Amino acid sequence: QVQLVESGGGLVQPGGSLKLSCAASGIIFSRSVMGWYRQAPGKERELVAAISSGGSTNYVDFVEGRFTISRDNAKNTVYLQMNSLKPEDTAVYYCKANTGWGNRFEYWGQGTQVTVSS
What we know:
The chain is mainly beta. The chain has no helices and 11 strands.
């Protein structure tokens, strides 16, 4: 059974930091492309950052320079370090894995709430 479990969300003040974790099981994690997405109320789910099996990273413009995606293959875990958080970063953050030949198979976590507010 494939399972992605996010953790680390919560309430933080503007300018603060949070680190999200996503623990994966049931996949060959070291060969999977991992990503973080977010969905705010009234908006569509959008890509935040992604990291390849080789460690190459990609960021959407609105988070580049503030967020860092990383992975620990020994722990089957992908992280999202979020700094300089803004109220507009408030959303449910989801972990996604793409795996299999050609990364054809896609799996999602349950999401973790991040709220940036004074």
